[in-house]
Amino acid sequence: MRKMTSLILVLSMLLAVVACSNANELNNTASPKGDNAEDGLQLEPGAELLIWASKEDLPFMNAVSKQYTEKHGVPITIQEVGAGDTLNKLTTDGPAQIGADVVIFTHDHLGKAVAAGLVLPNDVWQEDTKSANKDNIIRAVSYGNIMYGYPLSIEAPIMFYNKQLVPDPPVTFEEVVEFAKGYNDPDKAKFALMWEIENFYFNYMFIATNGGYVFGNNGVNFNDIGLNNEGAAEGVAYYGSLKDELLPVRTGDVTYDVKKGQFLSGQLAMNIDGPWLVGELKKKGDMYGAVPIPSINGKPSVSSSGVKSWYVNSYTSYPNAAKSFAHFASSKDAQLLNFQLTGAAPSNSEVMLDEGVQKDEFVSAIAKQFENSYPMPSIQEMSAVWIPMAAAMSDVWNNGADVKQALDQAVGQIKDSISGGSSGGGL
Description:
There is one protein chain. By secondary structure, the protein is α+β, with helices and mostly antiparallel strands. The chain folds into 2 domains: 38-155 and 306-374, D-Maltodextrin-Binding Protein, domain 2 (3-Layer(aba) Sandwich), CATH 3.40.190; 158-305 and 378-420, 3-Layer(aba) Sandwich (D-Maltodextrin-Binding Protein, domain 2), CATH 3.40.190. The chain is 46% helix and 18% strand. The chain is globular. 48% of the residues are buried. It holds the Pfam family SBP_bac_8. Keywords: Cell membrane, Lipoprotein, Membrane, Signal, Sugar transport, Transport.
């Protein structure tokens, strides 16, 4: 019996040693550096990630991916995908198991992504994300009271200007119109100010500044549409008046490429556009500046805005590694790096107070405009808004259509589309 007992003890010790050895081997396999856990989240053995990035984001993506791989030993491949193509590509590639593990898009596409089951909640680092960002940013990256995004940067349209042509940028639209009287020369394609006059994202400033809105209750109540109320009609009427006073062209003539080309060539003095233009303008040295959008009808301009965030593909084979990367690549240090490499305006409240960020006139203009903006609704019913509103405002601009009638018709189309479940379009 004593011999049997001794044999059992020896076998038990051997089994414990083998189990411990196997556990150590598993941990070391998960990451070449053995650093395979972040805040208690165990990364999958053999994890590797695919990231989609727009051309403008590539400098930051390459740098932050290298840092993450050095820390966690997880290989990362980056593929260039246009910002406007990301969600459509994920819709097909995600379920096919060939999509990126982590993607970036602005929050107004979140409702569509959630409805299609394409993204995972930001659950592990939810409290970290909340403490680092203001409430309006958290609302923007949440859907149905569930947070999905890992905020990276904020976007709002601002007014860029050529410092040689406009030493002192106007602060009101009335001043812009006055400047145009002595500057415009349509025969030479010289204009004081342009924005994409057919694009509702930019035209929203005329509606919101005067009290109009898309959906009620911070953009989630699609039964309350404020696009044809008294304030909205007043704003669109003012918008229509600017054709004769400021920009005597048809809406279809002002495309992004045309406007950008005229601005960079020195024909266009001022250009209302988004942060995606900042990187290219900074390469021109001190030639261009930026300020918030001029006031409209004596009121500070209220614009649309967006929150650009990381999202984790729900079909990823490595959800823990993907979440870990999204958290790492949206951290305070990562956002500062993004600002330094691309000029992006940080969402992180602490990074926004950084001295270098504060001194940057482009980011300062974006931050000021964002504070006076409404993030575009992220619910999927928003997709029913873009086309009818673009058509209504273009009809007012191009044809002098009755403002209230055009807006009423657009809102009717939006309601029909939502109730019929056939909403389409998009930014």
